[in-house]
Specification:
Layout lengths: L17 H4 L4 H20 L12 H7 L11 E6 L3 H18 L2 E6 L4 H10 L6 E4 L2 H9 L8 H10 L2 H6 L1 E2 L2 E2 L2 E7 L2 E5 H7 L7 H13 L3 E4 L5 H16 L1 H8 L8 H14 L8 H6 L3 H9 L7 E5 L4 H8 L8 E5 L10 E9 L4 H10 L2 H8 L19 H12 L5 E2 L1 H4 L2 H4 L5 H11 L4 H17 L1
Parallel strand pairs: 1-2, 1-3, 8-9, 11-12
Antiparallel strand pairs: 3-11, 4-5, 6-11, 7-9, 7-10
Keywords: Transport
InterPro entries: Bact_solute-bd_prot1 (IPR050490), SBP (IPR006059)
Family: Belongs to the bacterial solute-binding protein 1 family.
Length: 473
């Protein structure tokens, strides 16, 4: 979900997969998706936060889809994942379901933010975990090329073929071999807003970037700070840039920049940063101004928008579907009533569809490790976390009723309906030294840009210097 990894050793992205090089009407697909999503999300948000009288669907999902798993009593495996807090607890529930089904003993170990560094040290020290959850495509490819990952077995590949689109399968592959199961996805093109703040200011959901900025100024004039930004976490800023760049420059240029086939000093990057500067350059549009945004972490950026449903500290926050779990657990706001959501507004002709995700990979070639991956590739496993909220699965056979409310159900539907017409988080495709390191690379350059949005040229220069070094290494 979050771009929180750092590279160890050589890292490079996969050079040629159809999901990144595909040019077949992707823009049209994205625009159609977002148009449908906008309508469906608006309809969903206008109702209650759950369907009246309806079964949430988790139990029925499990009854319909019971994946075949071996008995593993006495087997012990270790799983490494970045998730902590509520996310960690929800993942543990998935693991508990696996343990109940197989009898295996499973220990979940937190990796901390620097996943690649943590795993690299464990692997080189001869004590890797059996299974790891990787939140970055670049790291999956780096590890595969080092020979650190074990290819999926036939049982897991059967589940992948049955439950996942070609695009999600390709994201977990390297040089024709399948290594990863994308268990958890993220829809990263969403604006979450405080319904009362929008109502009081007399603004509605923005369809275009121009309208978004106009609304923000109107909200500021009403006495509420318009946009809460978690600039203390660099990955949030990469997501802002990626949505603007994809919508403005288009999918082909996005693919080229993701692979560093064009430089960060390219005019298209200048245009995107200048556009982003239209927001970052007006401190009255940012909660706490530029300085406050830089000192705000992601969870706090969410609570600022929903700390008081009637009189919030900020009117809106941009980020993925996972904002929902912070709203539900850290505020009194009700999703669908107080907290509503709409697609990221179109900057160019097309609205963006940016995704992220966490892939399960095997670091040991054990029966239990492969069984867990098979389970994670099934609708049965996805249903466990879906019921808890704050989760979106790319598993196309997960019953939508498993999600706890209409808003999350529509977000998940939009992701599945996109098929292969989406673009994966750009920073997650990059070498982790550039796209996923605290205080360095893209994170640092964009934080400096948030501090001084007028210095577009300086930001481009810093981005290109960091990218050149990381891709070369």
């Amino acid at each position: 979900m979050r771009n929180t990894v750092r590279a160890t050793g050589t890292s490079r992205t996969r050079s040629n997969t159809s999901i990144f090089s595909n040019t077949r009407a992707t823009a049209r697909g994205a625009v159609a998706l977002c148009a449908v999503a906008a309508l469906s999300l608006t309809a969903a948000c206008s109702g209650s936060s759950s369907d009246e009288g309806g079964d949430k669907g988790g139990s029925s999902q499990t009854e319909k889809e019971t994946v075949k798993l071996p008995k593993l009593k006495g087997e012990k495996i270790q799983v490494a994942a970045v998730w902590t807090g509520d996310e960690g607890k929800n993942f543990e529930k998935v693991i508990d379901a696996f343990k109940e089904r197989t009898g295996a003993e499973v220990e979940v170990t937190p990796t901390g933010d620097n996943v690649a560094t943590y795993l690299g040290s464990k692997i080189e020290g001869g004590a890797p975990p059996d299974v790891a959850m990787l939140p970055q495509v670049g790291v999956l490819n780096q590890f595969a090329e080092k020979g650190w990952l074990k290819p999926l077995d036939d049982a897991t590949k059967k589940q992948l073929d049955k439950n996942f689109s070609k695009g999600w399968q390709e994201l977990g592959s390297n040089k024709g071999k399948q290594y990863g199961v994308y268990f958890k996805a993220a829809s990263k093109s969403l604006i979450w807003y405080n319904a009362k703040a929008y109502e009081n200011a007399g603004v509605s959901e923005a369809k275009s970037w121009k309208e978004f900025l106009t609304n923000a100024q109107t909200i500021a004039d009403s006495g509420v700070e318009p946009v809460s930004i978690g600039g203390g976490d660099g990955w949030v800023l990469t997501d802002w840039f990626e949505n603007i760049y994809l919508s403005q420059a288009g999918p082909e240029m996005y693919d080229k920049l993701a692979k560093h086939e064009i430089k960060w000093t390219d005019p298209s990057v200048k245009k995107a940063l200048t556009t982003l500067g239209q927001l970052f350059g007006k401190k009255e549009l940012l909660a706490g101004g530029n300085k406050g945004a830089l000192q705000t972490d992601f969870p706090t950026s969410v609570t600022k928008a929903f700390d008081d449903p009637e009189s919030p500290s900020a009117a809106s926050v941009f980020e993925g579907d996972f904002v929902g779990i912070n709203v539900a657990n850290d505020t009194k706001a009700k999703i669908g009533k107080d907290a509503k959501v709409y697609p990221f507004p179109a900057v160019g002709s097309d609205a963006p569809v940016v995704t992220g995700g966490d892939a399960a990979v095997a670091l040991k070639d054990s029966k239990a490790a492969h069984a867990l991956l098979t389970f994670l590739a099934s609708p049965e496993a996805a249903a466990v976390w879906a019921e808890e909220g704050g989760f979106v699965s790319p598993n196309k056979n997960l019953d939508g009723k498993a999600y706890p409310d209409a808003v999350q159900r529509e977000i998940a539907k939009a992701l599945i309906d996109a098929g292969d017409d989406f673009r994966f988080d750009m920073s997650d495709q990059a070498p982790a030294a550039f796209g996923g390191t605290k205080g360095k690379g893209e994170w640092k350059a964009l934080q400096d840009f948030l501090k001084n949005p007028k210095d577009v040229a300086g930001a481009q220069s810093a981005l290109e210097a960091a990218a050149t070094k990381a891709y070369k290494d």
